[in-house]
Amino acid sequence: MPNRKFADGEVVMGRWPGSVLYYEVQVTSYDDVSHLYTVKYKDGTELALKESDIRSQSAFKQRKSQSSSSSPSRRSSSRSRSRSPGRPAKGRRRSSSQSREHKDDKKKTISETNLAPLVLVAFLEIPRKGKYIHQGEIEHSVKLRGQQKLKPDLEIARVLEQYSLRPRKEEKKKEEIYSEKKTFETKKIIEKASLKTIEKAPSKTKELEFGGRIGTFTLMFFLPATVLYLLLMCKQDDPSLMNFPPPLPALESLWEARVFGVFLLWFFLQALFYLLPIGKVVEGLPLSNGRKLQYRINGFYAFVLTAAAIGTLLYFQFELHYLYDHFLQFAVSATAFSMVLSIYLYIRSLKAPEEELAPGGNSGYFVYDFFTGHELNPRIGSFDLKYFCELRPGLIGWVVINLAMLLAEMKIHNQSMPSLSMILVNSFQLLYVVDALWNEEAVLTTMDITHDGFGFMLAFGDLVWVPFVYSLQAFYLVGHPTAISWPVAAAITILNCIGYYIFRSANSQKNSFRRNPADPKLAYLKSIPTATGKGLLVTGWWGFVRHPNYLGDIIMALAWSLPCGFNHILPYFYVIYFICLLVHREARDEHHCKQKYGLAWERYCQRVPYRIFPYIY
Predict the structure, then answer these.
(1) How far is CA 595 from the centre of its chain?
(2) Is the distance from CB of 425 to CB of 287 less than 8 angstroms?
(3) Would you give the distance in Å from CA 166 to the centre of its chain?
(4) Burial class, 333, CB count within 10 angstroms (exposed 0-12 / middle 13-18 / buried 19+)
(5) CB 387, CB 295: distance < 8 Å
(6) How far is 197 from 41, CA to CA, in rounded Å?
(7) Does domain 10-56 have CATH number 2.30.30.140?
(8) Beta bridge partner(s), residue 26
């Protein structure tokens, strides 16, 4: 392993990616695996640079002194020897006064055609091999250019027309202002081009989440065990935390081939609905290579077709509470399928091009990349596996499971109609699912689609965690019925409506602004410009707290649990989990946005100090 050349905290000169300019930076860390230095610029921007893109300050001082050591008078004399301006031309002899006027006009032409902005001149010149231009050398480069041969007439005319150059003797002050303006504009263009170069360049994942390799390995066993524990506890007459551990069933009772077949039938039925040529086709956000993938928006149509299929089964006396009787086996089948799917996804990602890998799942560690997802958008033809699993089998399956629990409650307790608590839980969560499917296009701007790869984390989350943990309240109410009064039900309904209003209006503001910031309907919103060209909203819901959609999520999660009463904490597991999940996501978003937006994010945080809970957090 090669030794590092620069120490942490050392001030060096770092080359800005995609350009030939070097800036003063400070080394903050070094990655022994990728051999990249993390450096921090004066404006707060942090980038990862190779050692070949970093120079010590002493080396630049030496180069600058060498470049200025050559004698201008010597070059001038050699140029005088190469031609004789005072020598008369063939034919008619010029007088001395005419010769002087001719030379003065020529000098004036030279001075006028070499007044291009300093930074622009430096970038028009192609650097030689291994040599880069330092900012301190740009002015010297311009002086040298003033002594070189003139450009062709057409090039001179183009430069004069583009920059409207004037003689220094006449308008020196205006020219200085003009030069500074062009330098600033050129630097902005360079920075934008460099940012695009950085986004396009594939890089290894340096910062590992979820506890790194050990943490992700543990989570692959801990998450299925948590689902199993929650479902077993709900089956107990007294689901108290003091009754730990719950009695474990026999291993052979956890698996049933018929149940696995029903799960496969459900999965491929949703895949069939996804492939139907109904619904509009939209483009997602640009990928790192500039390409935009196309997505068919027909999730709501799939939900309607699913409802029709379920209604047909109920009409022919199919007992839907079969789901309740084999709920544990369905969870095990879904877990097994998600593991097989994750293995397939990782194997196919090994052959994927570098630019199609996920920025958060390209660490080079098998366990970590397997868990977080190595490939960003795995597709079989036009069938997008991640996008399909994000909303279809698990989210629609969640509603079907809730309906099965409602029917099971009526059958087990010999009720002619479901309890008020069960109706509230089913209604609130049905609204949430229908909203997600109706606004399906909004999911294309989430981090799950744009940043996270498709691996075990999302496969297990979409196919197991969402349908079997999010339906925990309905599953709990089947074995532990809870009676609530109408005034209490009305108060809980109002609470859910408040949470839903915050959630939906905040997401609508964000998605509309991302799609078209110049929309006249958004004229009332104010934003902070950033170096990426995107803006940060500082009014509306996003000026209230930094993550108002998370606030709405937590309020709704509380409303879903309140119908279960307060006898046990188990129904409130979802609220506790949701708070922990959103706090983790919020911390990840904060870190990602700070790296992406730099000083603009710091200004945004000063304008909006609260993260999720106003005046609290």
Answers:
(1) 11
(2) no
(3) 47
(4) buried
(5) yes
(6) 18
(7) yes
(8) 11, 40
| Nearest CA-CA partner of 359 in 291, 407, 287 | 287
Domain extent listing, the chain: 10-56, 214-483, 485-616
Which residues, listed in sequence order, are joined to residue 31 by a DSSP beta bridge? 36
Place of tokens 């027309």: 161
Asked whether the CA dihedral 341, 344, 350, 355 is positive or negative, the reply is negative
Backbone angles phi, psi at 37, to 5 degrees: -95, 135
Nearest Cα neighbor of 37 from 50, 24, 25 is 50
Strand partners, 11: 26
Does the pLDDT at position 524 exceed 50?
yes
Helices (H), 201-298: 212-235, 257-275
Report the amino acid identity of residue 26: Q
In 278-366, where do the E strands start and end?
280-283, 294-297
Amino acid at the residue 104: D
Instruction: Report which DSSP code applies to 357.
Output: B
With a cut of 60, say whether residue 437 has pLDDT above it: yes
Identify the residue whose tokens are 């010149």. 125
Whole-structure pTM over 0.90, yes or no?
Answer: no
Please give the average per-residue pLDDT across 106-118, as a whole number.
41
Residue 91 burial (10 A CB sphere; 0-12, 13-18, 19+): exposed
Q: CA 423: distance to chain centroid?
A: 37
Angle, vertex CA 457, rays to CA 451 and CA 458, nearest 5: 65
Residue pair 428/559 in contact (Cβ under 8 Å)? The answer is yes
pLDDT in tens, 599-615: 888 888 888 888 878 87
* 358 confidence band (pLDDT: 50, 70, 90): confident
* Residue carrying structure tokens 């020219």: 175
SS (H, E, C) 548-600: HHHHHHHHHHHHHHHHHCCCCCHHHHHHHHHHHHHHHHHHHHHHHHHHHHCHH
Looking up tokens 């606004």, which residue turns up? 439
C-alpha angle 528-525-46 in degrees, rounded to nearest 5: 20
d(CA 108, CA 529): 43
Please enumerate in sequence order all residues whose Cβ is within 8 A of that of 18, keeping only pairs 6 or more positions apart, or say none.
190, 193, 194, 196, 197, 198
Residues 6+ apart with CB under 8 A from 405: 323, 324, 422, 471, 474, 475, 477, 478
**Which residues lie across from 221 on neighbouring strands?**
none
Contacts of 251 (CB under 8 A, 6+ apart): none
Query: What is the end-to-end Cα distance of the chain in Å, rounded?
Result: 44
Read off the DSSP letter of residue 444: G
CA distance 299 to 436: 9
Lowest mean pLDDT among 54-58, 59-63, 549-553: 59-63
Task: Indicate the length of the chain as a whole number.
Answer: 617
Let me know: does 320 contact 411? Beta carbons within 8 Å: no
- Cα distances from 73 to residues 70, 76, 144, 347, in angstroms, run 9, 5, 12, 68
> Three-state SS string across 191-219, please?
HHHHHHHHHHCCCCCCCCCCCHHHHHHHH
> What would the pLDDT profile of 305-315 be if each residue is shown by its tens digit?
999 999 999 99
Distances (CA, A) of 272 to 267, 340, 388, 403, 512: 9, 20, 11, 22, 30
Backbone angles phi, psi at 81, to 5 degrees: -70, -25
Question: In the block, which residue shows the tokens 């047909």?
Answer: 312
